[in-house]
Amino acid sequence: MITPDPSRIRRSLRKLKLLLKNKPLSVERRGQELVGHIGYRKLRGHVHFTEMQFGRFSVAAAEPENLRCSGMILYLHGGGYCCGGQEYAKGFGAVLANATGARVLCPAYPLAPEHRFPAALEDMLELYELLCRSFDPKKIALAGESAGGGLIYALCIAARDRGLPLPGGIAVISPWTDLTFSGSSVQKNREADPSLSLERLRFFAAAYTDTPKDPLVSPLFGELSGFPESRIFVGGDEILLDDALRLHEKLLSQGSKSRLTVAPDMWHGYLLYGMEESGQDMDDLCRFLTEVTA
Q: In the CATH scheme, what is the code of domain 6-293?
């Protein structure tokens, strides 16, 4: 099996970043949907999807042919809270289901600017509450990348404050946890990051909220004590590197368990690209999710 070449991916990401500069949001949305569609088509026959509608959002439930876990993974996709629909969510959701042997819920949460904060959080809280009534919360794992990773921590803060049980574990890839951009890596890695631009992220943040310091928007500023164990994966070249580093440090300082993996010379969401070079990190991620849901 041929695996993607990191140097080729890096060049392609740089070209894509330039191509999307100043393009309408609709263009980026169509691109993400196509990426997801290609991703889950590769696993057709190994993962079966059932789609459902919940109010203003849809959910695709992935079930692997090698089902061996009784719990559930709730996977929240990235896209800056403005991009990524059902097809995109199914792409990596299928990968997780096939690799872990667990069922994976892939919601297409409402996107900004049509649905601004707290729409996505409220809908995901409703979905999580339903999951807690259907599964042992300790066998529920939350997984997500980028904005989806940040939304997971906001969801846990809101769930805890509402008195809901917290999940058995959290696994995130390149989480966006600070929409105020106060981390030093925003400037330090500006040239090294082949995929993200500060200008585009500022556009996404403004489209999503007027209150970027709210802990339910930027969970880095929230109370993170009593959280389940976290696994955090981030690329060393990301402008959002500090979002992951500071999240990990705060979790530990407030008594929660966390393990951080920084992949040298890697970019935002690097685990989504199926590279041989990141195979060990992907194995670690899926092993953790399997342990929680089994």
A: 3.40.50.1820
Q: Is 8 helix (H, G, I), strand (E, B) or coil?
A: helix
Residue 1 pLDDT > 70: no
What's the start-to-end Cα distance of the chain, in Å? 29
Residue matched to tokens 């991916």:
9
Nearest partner of 181 among 100, 246, 268, 115, judged by Cα: 246
Tell me the backbone φ, ψ of residue 57, rounded to 5 degrees. -135, 155
**pLDDT tens-digit map of 128-155:** 999 999 999 999 999 999 999 999 999 9
pLDDT in the model for residue 162: 95
3-state SS class at 106: strand
Separation between Cα atoms, residue 232 and residue 115, nearest integer Å: 28
- For residue 278, which phi and psi values (nearest 5 degrees)? -105, 15
- Both tokens of 60, joined, read 């695709």
Q: How far apart (Å, rounded) are the C-alpha atoms in residues 109 and 124?
A: 7
Of 133, 114, 142, 128, which Cα lies nearest the Cα of 56? 114
Each domain of the chain, given as residue ranges in start order, spans 6-293
Taking only the tens place, the pLDDT of each residue in 61-95 is: 999 999 999 999 999 999 999 999 898 999 999 99
Residues 6-28, mean pLDDT to the nearest whole number: 87
CA distances from 166 to 128, 143, 154, 155, 264 (A): 10, 13, 12, 10, 32
CA distance linking residue 237 with residue 266, whole number of Å:
6
Diameter of the chain by CA atoms? 48
Rounded distance, CA 7 to CA 3, Å?
Answer: 12
